[in-house]
Each structure stands twice: as structure tokens, then as C-alpha cells.
## 1
Amino acid sequence: MARAKPPTTTVAPKLQLSPQGIERCIARLQERITELANFDVSQLSDDGASPKLVALSTSIEDTLVRCFGENTSVYYRFSSAAQLHFSPGVWTENYPLRHHYVQGTEDNIQQSMHMLLEAQRTLREDLADHEHATKPENPVVADNIQQALSRKVFIVHGHDEGAREMVARFLERLGFQSIILHEQANQGRTVMEKVETHGEVGFAVVLLTPDDEGCAKGGTPEPRARQNVLLELGYFLGRLGRDKVCALKRGAVEIPSDFAGVVWEPMDGNGWKQALGRELEAAGHDIDWNKVMRA
């Protein structure tokens, strides 16, 4: 999905929102992300058309304009998120067929979700700037924030149950509470709604394990993490910030270019425990290094 380029006309200044307006925009973007995650590509016609897909594209476009302003540089940075319909570059007797439109639309939806998660991160940085500008320097307040830092850690995982349990038990020995999604009650909610409900955590550990295979069209399938793992990785990067997310990679796993800036640690051996302990400590948590070394 190509990124839209701004026109040659003068670009408008960035839209200035109040903190309340920024929070509303973050919530609206999350609604669009959830709608994308729940979109059923099986309803596409043979040429990839779908009235619901068009409506969703329009809704994303409207949300971006509301959050960033029309004809602004930051709007153009994320405007490609509204481009959901797959448009093949060439046509032959056997291409494109319906399954090509389905796969292309799925790829566009994944890219759109990544872009909207990044848009949320941008807005959260704006909100943090507002709070920093208005909050007086008060060391007592800083101490209270440190004391209130949540010891809950969300574990994002695929099908590797051994890796999941190993990380969960390690965290619990250090005094953290592991939040594992499938252990929480569904209560009629979608996966993303469950993630949002249990996302009030102080840190997230993402396990990149070779559970799926994938490749570009015509390429050789390579091991990769499950798509829901990558989606939740992007979600917590946007929600918590990169300094409160640690990705652990087990075995040979393809890392998408979207996450090229994410620091990950190899999980082969025991070095990951010290690496995760360092990341937790850097995020503001108290770590008992005697327990880390004995784990």
C-alpha cells in the first residue's frame, strides 16, 4: 500500500487540539482499528469490491481529518491508512483472481492498522507534551507516580506455550503479575476488546515465535510470528511506548520492516532473563537481581 504524497499546494499547519480532543481522537482511532480487525474479507466480490470496505475507508479518512486537520503534513503521513481496496498493477489471464483480491485486501488492512497505531502513538506524544507543559516540577508527585507503577505485565504470545509459560513464571518470581489473554474471561468480547480491557499494565512482553509461514507473492515461505502477535505488538507500542515493551525472539523469525526500529532480544539460552530484567528496571520497576540470576 503506497503512501499518499501531499499535493504541491501549501501544506496547512498542524491541527492544535486540547488534551480532551486528543483523547477523543485516540479513542476514535482505536474504534477504526477494531473495525479493521473485525472486517470479514470473505464478503469481497470477485473484483475485490465491498460497500462495507468503502464505508470503512471513508470512516478512516474522516477520523484522520478530525484528528490531524485536512491538508496537513501529519495527515498526509497517515492518509494511506484509508487505502483498503486492492488495486493490482497488472492484469493477465490468471491474475488477478478472487483470492488475489482477498490476500491484497488483507495486506492493506494489516498495513492500515499499523499506520493507525502509529497515529495513536503520535497523539499520545502530543498529550504527554501538554501534560509536561502544565505540570509543575514536584518531586513528591514523581515519587507517587513511581509508587503507583503497575506490576502487571501483559504477555503477547503465539502458539509456543513453552515460551509463554517460561516468561510468565520468570516474571512471577520477580514479583510481577502476568496477564495472559486466553486465561481471561471472554464475556462476549472480541480479541481486541479483551486486549483493551486488560491493557492497563505497566509493561508488555511480546514473544516472536515461528508459528506461521509467509512470503511475498512468488517468494519462498519463511517462518514468521502470528499476525495477531504483530498487531498486539503495535498496539502496546502505541499504548505504552517503546521503553515499556520488550520483544523476545525465539528461533528464526522474519521481522516485518514496520518494526525495524523495535529492539528485540534473542530467547535462545538464558541471556533473555537478564535482558528483560534490564528493560523492566529501565522502565522504572524495582528488580531483585539475586532472583534474576537464580531464575
## 2
Amino acid sequence: MVQNSSPSGAWSSVEIAGHRASVLEPTEPHPHNLAVIYLHAVGCEDLAEDPVFTAELAQRGLRVIAPHSGESWWSDRPLGDFDDSRTAEHYVVHDVVQAIQERWAIEPPRIGLVGVSMGGQAALRMAYRFPGKFPVAAAISPAIDFHQWLERPTAQTDIVPGLRKLYRDPEHARQDTATLHVHPLNWPRHQFFCSDPLDHWHEGADRLQMKLSSLGIPHQCDLVTSAGGHSWDYFHAMAPRVVEFVAQSLEQEHLRLPV
């Protein structure tokens, strides 16, 4: 069923392995058949209802699947609230990738990861864990140091209860953060992340860029632009730059493929 449409493309809702996902079909798909997996924030906002990201993605002809996983943090930890038989990460890495292959005949490395907040940290973490499959990843306001929130009283935030279903304590969670999954010899060839200096998650992004720099790992980041802190004003302000980065990087990956 079509949820939303515009001159640049149309969204539809599909089921992948028993879970709902939103699919963007641009009016003029990229000639090299490129795709993006979008990972949502903890608010579970549906990308199909976001005209800013829709316009940026469709303008560049990027086909998109935006799966819905609830407050799973897209982790590789069991969470009955999401699925009894598969983790959210496994769902993305296997089921969503397979759906892209079957629907559009697009295979890695022509599939990029994009995420916001909760989804941003996951896009980076999955790219660090599977750089061969996801050599292109971009994150807006990534909630990297989520382990720190486990030290806060549950009453302070609705983020904590979800995390406590996944991790037994802050150290258990810290070991699963994107920064701890960076491999000094194997990394995604194209990575970009950005964070508003006023964002309460900013320190994690700053620590990540320091680690990448110290290891000599190529990356791009913007940790100075300010446009509203951790908010959709900032997410939308950075959308054109992020989507352009992903489109150009996927194009470079296409050129790497055997003729």
C-alpha cells in the first residue's frame, strides 16, 4: 500500500521476514542501481513521512528500505519486543539485504547504511563489524556512548528501560558500542558522521573521531556545525550533505566492481 508519494518518488509499506518496512522507489532510479538501508531513531519515526529526507534520497535516485525495529538499538542482542528468533542486527544484515537483492537485484557493496541517533550509532557499528558488506556508512547525531545512560535513574529518560532489556550493566553495553567495534586493519572505505556541539551525545562522536584519527583510519566528520542540538532541525539541516556523501561513495564502490 502506498503511504506517501511526491514527484520524485513513492513510498510503500512491505513486510520483510515478518516485520514492516518502508520502501522508497524514486521516479528516476540511479542508472547504476544503488540502494540505502535507513535505520531509524529511538522515536521510531517513519522515514516515509519525512519530506526532507525523501526529497534528498529520491533526487539522487537512491532506492531505500527503512525497516522498523522498535527500541531495539539495532543490536545483535536478543529482544523479545522485536523478534523471538532473530536480533535486529541480524535482521538488517541478512533479511533486509536479501530483500534488496530480490527486489532490485542490488548486492553489496552497492548498499549503504544511513542512520539517525539510535540508528546512527547502529549504521557505524554494523559497518565496522561488516565492512566488506557495508563499505559506505553515514550517521547523523549518532548515539554512540549509550552505555552512559545505564548509569542514570530509569525515571530520567525513556531510553534507559529499552537498554536495560539488552544489556546487564554499563560495561556490558560499552563493549558493544561502535567505538569498541573499530578494527585497526579492517574498516568501511567510506564513513561520515556528524554531531551538533550542543548535542548531549556529542562527546561520543568526538571520542570516535579521535580514535579513528589515532589509528589512521580514513573518515569524514563534521563536529562543528550547529543547527539545533539533538533535534530534527539538525537532522534535516545535515540531510543534504549526508545523502550526497552516500550517493558519491556508492558510485565509487560501483566503479570498483568487476566489469
## 3
Amino acid sequence: MPTCLAVLGSPIAHSRSPRIHAAAYRVLGLDWRYTAVRCGEPGLAAFIAGRGPEWRGFSVTMPLKVEAHRIAAALDPVAVESGVANTLLRLDGGGWFGANTDVAGLAAAVRGAALDARVTVVLGSGATAVSAILAARDLGAERVYILARNVAAAARLVDRFSGTTAAHASAPMRVEYLGAASEGWDAVERPTLVISTLPGPAAATTTLPESITATPLFDAAYDPWPSPLAARWRAAGGLAVPGTDMLVAQALVQVRVFTSGDPGLPLVKEEAVLEAMRAAV
């Protein structure tokens, strides 16, 4: 029986993960099947519990990342700190190992685009916003401003991450909540990067000051592209970078987890795998 993997989420039909992962396993010479399965948060635990031993692991997308973290019997350090998991790997003794590859993926994509994260504005306060804040910290952010409608969620992010320090940093990062995007832009001081974690419809009507489009936008959205926010950014003459590089970079770390259990262990033929994954997008 072939080894099975899947990406879980709702909605899920738009996901490019099956083609990206399939490209990786072809290069690695692995006869693994990777599919997309629609699954809502209330049904995640039951779905996973009902999979047989041929199921090796799962990629987990919205809205399941917090629930995946709860289900996991063991977690990698990034999942522990972030409180979310986007990857589940079956453990030999039973249960699931949860990892967060979004942080590494987002950081790699921002670094690859040569963007400056010293003063980062994060739009949104959900699971992807958590990863954006931690990625910005890893990239040397001194300040992170959060613009989001959910006051309680944003306040929790400030409490959890303001004053924390990256392993290679000399000073702690400051995180501030400035209110919703319709009201908080005026308090943003000389931003170097905007990271949007908003879904397309939510970002379509986000208020933008005329000057902000001089700052590069990294938009975690990628389908469709340009997203409504990126289209507005570009129309104003600004630079908007799509989330496809993040999608590929975090998937590469997922492949590491699925093959070795270690998100930090490079793959055999990793450069060839990465090239194939990018081509699949």
C-alpha cells in the first residue's frame, strides 16, 4: 500500500500543495501520494484518528492550525512558541508530531525578495499573523506594528511577542497594536515592510494611506494573483510580492519533516527538489 499524505483545510480546492509536493517526491524517488482533502475544524481530530498506518502525515491550512497544535502529542520549538501547527507527522509510538513551517517559509521568502523587515507592519491577527511576527523577528525586526479588527487577538499577540528576542539579535523586538487598518496607519513610524495575512475579500476594502505604497508589500495571498490588495498596491506604483515563494519554502520544510522528522535537516538533492517545487507552482 503506498504511503499517503494530504493537505487539509476548508476551502481546499484551490490548493497548489498537491502539485508542489508531488514534484518533490518525484525528485526524491518516493512513490508517495499527496492529495487535498476538505476538512473543517470540528472534524479534524476524528478525520486524523480514522486514518490507517499508510497515512504518514498532513499539511494543515486554515482554519485548522490551532486545532492541529492541540491534537499534536509532541511539537517542534516553533510550534510551541507560535501556538499553531501546519504540519502533522505520525509518530512511531502513536500520536502526531506537530511542526510550524510557516515561520521558516515566510522568512525565506522575504529574505529571497531582498526585503527589509526592520520596521514591519502586519495586517491581520490570525494564525498566519503569528508566523509573520516570528518571521519578522528572525529577520531582525526592531518594531512590529499590528493592524487588525480583532482587538482581543491582537492584544494577545502583543502580550506574547513584544519584548522577545531572536537568537541572533542584540535587542528585543517591540510589538504594538495600532487598531484596525482603517484607523491605525497614521501611528506607523517609517515602515520598511508590510506583510498582509488577510484573505483576499478582507483586504479588498482595507484603507490605505497614499504614502504607504512606497513601502514594499509581501502578501501571503497568492490565488488569485494579484490579490485585491496587491492590485491596489501596484496601481499606486508600489512593489507587491506574492505568497507563492512562502508556499514553496514552507512546503520544502514540510518535506523535510515528512522524510526525516527533522525540519532543520536538509534533503538529499535539496536544490533540485526546490527547483522542481518552484516549477510546479
